[in-house]
Design goal:
The chain is an alpha/beta fold and 190 residues long. It contains 9 helices and 5 strands. Bound molecules: adenosine monophosphate. The site of adenosine monophosphate has 17 residues, from helix 2 and helix 3.
Length: 190
């Protein structure tokens, strides 16, 4: 089963993605996590994307597809039941790149999950997450830019996919376990 997880910054995608990957034996492909890892390692790639991430803008499609390919290549395992794309694709060009990539692997997207949370709650969550995780892009200014990028570049993907894919809208407000239960219910039958 291959899943794309959509949702604005602060919707809880990362947390839910980890739970889903464990339950369904999927490889968690979070482009944001991979980039933050590179920043932590202070690699050339990390240095080149740090400022962009802190501004809330998108890193180039070229870098994204490269790190994604590498992560899939390095984590190949026959025992995997599929992939969970978290934070990718972020725009139409990336959606087309993903489609080419999946075609070449003879795979398809089985389900698209959209976690929905209203903006005031996103801000509250992001500011409290900063205290625990210390992400340098978790601040009010960057969040506003990330939400704008999400609505301009990523949200149109929902329409893009809706003609050919099952899109499951999940209410992302509530306890982590409640949201997880809603997702599991939405995935029943896959
Ligand atoms: P995330 O953890 O998915 O919220 O991503 C954090 C930041 O990493 C984003 O605000 C972007 O700057 C960058 N990023 C992550 N994934 C992508 C992507 N697919 N395309 C472009 N930039 C990305």
């Amino acid at each position: 089963m291959n899943i794309i997880l959509f949702g604005p910054p602060g919707a809880g995608k990362g947390t839910q993605a980890k739970m889903l990957c464990e339950k369904y034996n999927l490889l968690h492909l979070s482009t944001g996590e991979i980039l933050r890892d590179e920043i932590r390692k202070n690699s050339e790639l990390g240095k080149s994307v740090k400022e962009i991430i802190e501004s809330g803008k998108l890193v180039s499609d070229e870098i994204i597809i490269k790190i994604l390919n590498l992560a899939m290549e390095n984590n190949k395992k026959d025992s995997l039941s599929g992939y969970l794309f978290d934070g990718f694709p972020r725009n139409i060009d990336q959606a087309n790149l993903l489609s080419d990539l999946l075609d070449s692997l003879k795979l398809k997207i089985d389900c698209i999950l959209l976690i929905e949370v209203d903006e005031p709650i996103l801000l509250e969550r992001i500011l409290s997450r900063k205290k625990f995780e210390g992400r340098s892009d978790d601040n009010k200014e960057t969040l506003i830019s990330r939400i704008q990028v999400y609505s301009e570049e990523t949200e149109p993907l929902i329409d893009h996919y809706s003609s050919n894919h099952a899109i499951k809208r999940i209410d992302g407000v509530g306890e982590i376990s409640e949201v997880n239960q809603r997702i599991n219910t939405a995935l029943e039958g896959f």
